[in-house]
Amino acid sequence: MIDSINKYATPAAALSAFSAAGFTFIDGNGIEHILQANIEGAAICEVGQLYTMTDPGTPGDPLDPPTYTGDGFHWVVYRHLNENTLPAALLPATVWNSLMPTVRPTDGTIPNQFWL
Predict the structure, then answer these.
(1) Longest dimension (CA), the chain
(2) pTM, whole model, 2 decimals?
């Protein structure tokens, strides 16, 4: 099994990489999308932008809500249950994968979504 966190400049760049890796489908309108899962053991979650709170606002005041700012990147989390290598098309955007000798960062610089 392998997990990876991938960072792309745009959703289109992510789509292109996952298309090259064979993890996309064409919907009934002819639009290509990244798969969420396949029967071979892959699971993919498009996180999108990573948002962090930049101003807490005033707690309890609906007229002064918290402000969140996106990082401008498109994040995609990839897991494959039956493989232990990443597809070559995903490697250039991989920020972390479970085969790296480093522990997964938890400092808020990457999405903190974990698989259940």
Answers:
(1) 50
(2) 0.83
Sign, Cα dihedral of 110, 112, 49, 5:
positive
**Are the CB atoms for 86 and 69 separated by under 8 Å?**
no
Residue 116, C-beta contacts closer than 8 angstroms, at least 6 positions apart: none
Residues 6+ apart with CB under 8 A from 43: 36, 37, 78, 79, 80, 81, 115
Every domain of the chain and the residues it spans: 2-25+33-57+66-97
Q: pLDDT tens-digit profile of 27-68?
A: 999 999 999 998 889 999 999 998 888 999 999 999 999 999
